């Protein structure tokens, strides 16, 4: 019952229900019962592959076969089926795609299926022995719940900061990881102080690990920030864009990966071809939405080669940090990147320079580089390879293993500035929508 792509593209106004089962007769029954609500697409494969199909088809509801029945036509083919299979699939989808509604399909003649569905966290149930009208009512109730419970309105309008490494290897990902960690620590500390002040206490109580900061790990090589942070996530940037309309506090804090300190890490997909389906406008809408959940969102775009995508995010940013070192190759790359950004209409006013791995013995001074390119000098970070590598080899950051190191001390005022009282912007301060409309 797999529909051809051209049929799917012509039926965007219909709801799409994905029935995960190898039982053909059950699929036919559901297609007939739910004809008035949408189209039923049937798939049977390993849970990891079905997770991708849910995203590819943009299914509004996933139906799981908890009937326990075996289809005589497919029972010898190794197709997906059975209560154990449905339970495993429910757990995978609940963990990786919590915003997608799940509905169990079964029968009262197999009560163990209904019990297994409840234990797997699936609370809606279609009883095939009760008739098509009840099945249609269940699905409509689920859809109504999705449509009448939109994502909560953002309570914050945090900053969006883009870090662009002028070429691979200048330390942009290392900087992004350390900066976000410091922003999170500053947010937790400020929250604790505010709670203590409001309570009139002399000492702040332990603050919860709320996510004050987010890191978009979009640099290349892919996943470097996540590697430095010793953080893994099954939910990536492309999936976040696909689930944009469902993005709320629950999705942010359950599906997205979190560092041990509490901040969110959103990486590139493992298969980078998935990014081809991410429209620039949707990526911008995602970054704008994230402002509502975090005080500061940092995007690591070091080494990212798609200039159109990069420039769109840079135009949306409150600040763009161009990260370079003192090498001849980096200086030449900085000049080239600046020309491309200006050609893409990224305003000079948001650009600042960060000279990383700095040592006065290497030659050109940081302020000379800034004057040469007419850029404000945002920060100068010393060359500390031993400290950074030793921390990375422990799966930690230098701010955790050596908080008094010169690199950490140089970065601290930059993080504090981003976390300061003027760090939040009102909605009208965001410029990307108008610029996008003029494109």
UniProtKB/TrEMBL annotation:
GO cellular component assignments: cytoplasmic side of plasma membrane; cytosol
Gene Ontology BP term (one): phosphorelay signal transduction system
PROSITE patterns found in the cross-reference section: RESPONSE_REGULATORY
Keywords carried by this UniProt record: Phosphoprotein
Residue span, Response regulatory domain: 16-143
Annotated protein name in UniProt: Response regulatory domain-containing protein
Region (Disordered) location: 419-439
UniProt-recorded Gene Ontology molecular function terms: ATP binding; ATP hydrolysis activity
Residue list for modification 4-aspartylphosphate: 65
Organism superkingdom: Bacteria
Annotated organism of origin: Pandoraea thiooxydans
Coiled-coil residues: none
Keyword Phosphoprotein set for record: yes
């Amino acid at each position: 019952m797999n529909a051809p792509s051209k049929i799917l593209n012509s039926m965007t106004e219909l709801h799409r229900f994905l029935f995960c089962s190898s039982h053909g007769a059950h699929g036919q029954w559901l297609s007939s019962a739910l004809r008035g609500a949408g189209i039923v697409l049937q798939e049977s494969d390993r849970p990891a592959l079905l997770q991708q199909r849910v995203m590819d088809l943009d299914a509004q509801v996933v139906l799981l076969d908890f009937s326990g029945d075996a289809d005589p036509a497919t029972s010898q083919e190794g197709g997906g089926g059975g209560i154990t299979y449905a339970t495993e699939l429910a757990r995978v989808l609940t963990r990786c795609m919590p915003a997608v509604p799940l509905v169990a399909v079964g029968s009262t003649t197999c009560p163990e299926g209904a019990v297994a569905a409840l234990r797997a966290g699936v609370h809606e149930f279609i009883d095939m022995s009760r008739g098509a009208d009840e099945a249609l009512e269940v699905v409509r109730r689920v859809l109504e719940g999705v449509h009448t419970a939109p994502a909560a309105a953002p309570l914050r309008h945090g900053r969006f900061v883009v870090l662009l490494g002028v070429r691979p290897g200048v330390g942009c990902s290392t900087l992004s990881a350390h900066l976000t960690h410091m922003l999170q620590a500053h947010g937790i500390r400020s929250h604790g102080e505010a709670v203590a002040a409001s309570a009139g206490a002399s000492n702040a109580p332990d603050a919860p690990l709320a996510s004050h900061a987010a890191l978009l790990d979009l640099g290349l090589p892919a996943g470097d920030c996540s590697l430095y942070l010793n953080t893994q996530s099954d939910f990536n940037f492309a999936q976040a864009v696909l689930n944009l309309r469902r993005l709320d506090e629950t999705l942010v804090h359950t599906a997205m990966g979190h560092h041990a300190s509490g901040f969110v890490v959103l990486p590139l997909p493992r298969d980078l071809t998935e990014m081809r389906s991410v429209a620039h406008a949707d990526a911008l809408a995602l970054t704008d939405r994230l402002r509502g959940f975090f005080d500061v969102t940092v995007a690591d775009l070091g080494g990212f080669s798609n200039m159109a995508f990069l420039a769109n995010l840079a135009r949306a940013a409150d600040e763009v940090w161009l990260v370079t070192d003192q090498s001849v190759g980096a200086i030449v790359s900085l000049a080239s990147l600046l020309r491309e950004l200006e050609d893409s209409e990224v305003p000079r006013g948001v650009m600042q320079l960060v000279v990383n791995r700095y040592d006065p013995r290497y030659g050109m001074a940081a302020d000379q580089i800034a004057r040469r390119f007419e850029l404000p000098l945002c920060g100068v970070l010393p060359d500390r390879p031993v400290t950074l590598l030793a921390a990375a080899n422990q799966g930690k950051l230098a701010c955790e293993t050596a908080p008094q190191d010169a690199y950490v001390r140089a970065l601290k005022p930059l993080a504090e500035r981003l976390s300061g009282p003027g760090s939040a912007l009102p909605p009208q301060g965001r410029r990307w929508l108008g610029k996008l409309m003029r494109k």
